[in-house]
Amino acid sequence: MDPIVFIPLYQTRVWGGRSLEESYNRPLPDSQPYGESWEISDREHEQSLISSGKFSGKSLHDLWSNHREEIFGEGLTGERFPLLIKILDARDDLSIQVHPPKEIAPQLGGDPKTEMWYIADCDPGAKLYVGLKEGTTRESFEASLQDGSVESQVHAIQPSAGDSIFIASGRLHAIGAGFLIYEIQQNSDTTYRVFDWNRMGLDGTPRDLYIDESMASIDFNDFEPGMDTPDGNTIASCEYFIVDQLDLQAGENVQNKNDRFSIITVVSGEITSASGSTFKKGDFFILPRGAQALSATESSKILQTYIPD
Q1: Which CATH topology does 234-306 take?
Q2: Which one of 171, 193, 260, 289 is the catalytic residue?
Q3: Which of 67, 137, 209, 254 has minimal CB crowding within 10 Å?
């Protein structure tokens, strides 16, 4: 079975830009700032549609509902495809935010969301805000919300392209200006915005904040994390997904890790499917269960995301 490619879903954001157009030669719908491209999505109102091939025009939800074992493998449950894959283009700072842990998400009316970020590109000196500065307390953080000094309470990191970091539910975080990031996450869109740099949204009014929900969700023992260190090829591993980074030389092959599907992200170089389809930097696709191996046509770097057994 051939790789399954989807039509991107572009999302305008007050902090977005035009890097999706500039870096990947993608035509954007209009001149607005686009901050997100949802590459693989099975959300009720954001459905990825297949761009070509046997299932052309069908939605990801249709495949998940009606061709699950054939395409994705056995033993996978749930009403919707379990992952959501995005490219983020941050030309301005994102809001400081948190996702609710699974233990309290239902009582807050949301869904848990664990994710990881892979730094595809970044400007010199660009910062990620992750976790709290040593010594921050719930009380000092609440006080900073009142006087607008939240940045003084949040830990900042300056990563490089190729770095990655795991963002568990409950970890306070924000992406600073100057990043292109591949985000791999649970299929959830619950985000509690706790501070938005005192700016206006695209409609000229302040964006909503969710202070109570944020304070209930933040892990106040999460101090000054660093970027993650790979474990062999694995750069992220949790109960929801595993992400491997693979460096392939020309002629090297890659296949699924188990008797299930995987998601391939081309970071650099070029890879080709058995049927001759070619994929380059910034391409995402599902490699179905039982698909033939992909081959690197030149020195290439890919991410391979799969569901643990």
Answers
A1: Jelly Rolls (2.60.120)
A2: 193
A3: 137
